[in-house]
Amino acid sequence: MLKSAKAVVDKMGGTSAASRSSSAALPVEINLATLGRFVAVALQLALVLFAIYQFKIEEQSGLIRIVGLIFIGFSVHAWLPATMRQPFFVGLTLVAIYLIFGLINALWLIGLSLALILLAHLPIDYRARIALIVVAGAGLTAMQAGLYTTSWSTAILPILGSMFMFRMALYLYDMRSEKKPATLFERLSYFFQLPNIVFPFYPIVDYITFRRTYYDRDAYEIYQKGVLWMLRGVVHLLMYRVVYYYFTPAVEEVQGLGGVVLFIVSAYLLYLRVSGLFHLIIGLMCLFGFNLPETHKRYFLASSFNDYWRRINIYWKDFMMKLFFYPVYMRVRHWGNIPALVFSTVIVFACTWILHSYQWFWLQGDFPLTTVDGVYWGVLGVLVAINSVWESVKGKKAKSLSKKGWTLQGALGLSLRTVVTFLFLGVMWSFWSSESVGEWWSVMKQVGTSGAPEWLLLLGGLAGLYVVLVALDALEAKGLSPFFEERGMSFSTVAGRTGLMALALAGIGLPQVHQRAGEQAS
Question: Which pTM does this prediction carry?
Answer without folding.
Answer: 0.91
